[in-house]
Amino acid sequence: MKANKVFVSAPISMDWSTVLEFYHKLDSKGLDARLWNRDCSYDQKAFDDCGSIVFLLPNNKFNSISSQLPVGLKSELCRSFAQRKNIYVGYITSGGEYNIYEADTNGGCTINGISGTANSIFRKIQEQINQKAAVKLAANSMYGGCGGINPNSLELPTPTRVCAQIVTGHEFEYGFDERLLLAL
Known about the structure:
The protein is of the alpha/beta class and 184 residues long. The protein has helices at residues 16-28, 44-48, 71-82, 120-140, 178-183, and strands spanning 2-9, 32-35, 50-56, 63-65, 86-92, 98-105, 110-113, 171-172, 175-176. It has a domain at 2-128: 3-Layer(aba) Sandwich (Rossmann fold). It has five helices and nine strands, in the order E-H-E-H-E-E-H-E-E-E-H-E-E-H. It has a seven-stranded mixed beta sheet with strand order 2-1-3-5-6-7-4, with helices on both faces. Strand 5 (86-92) and strand 6 (98-105) form a beta hairpin. The chain is elongated.
């Protein structure tokens, strides 16, 4: 499961151009966007390989309960929750913007978009990619310095305490003597 893979889940009844708009928004930001092509058989592996799922709810809703979801969407919601994927809601604003919001769900009964999180998916996925890269770098580091992850890591010297002198009484008519401040 890769962090930059995002699956767009939409009801069959939704207009295909709407689904493609969300797909292209993800793709244009460099993410590996995936969806179910309705002309082909469903590929469960494409869904399972994704780290994030964007749900497009029926009738462009921001919140939905289980009874309002089509069977396929409900199944994908339960599966994504069980697999601990990042879950988002795609929503078209009154201004016509295609935004993706973080979602709150219990995995089966409800899915609710979270206001104020528009398009945070791009920042969050980049953070996950950076975090995975840092862990990989630390694990593969020849020189270590990363808390003992690598058994060949070098031991860094113990820092010593630095003591400074306090300069007092050198205030002049127009402020402090700049030479003394630079000498510190």
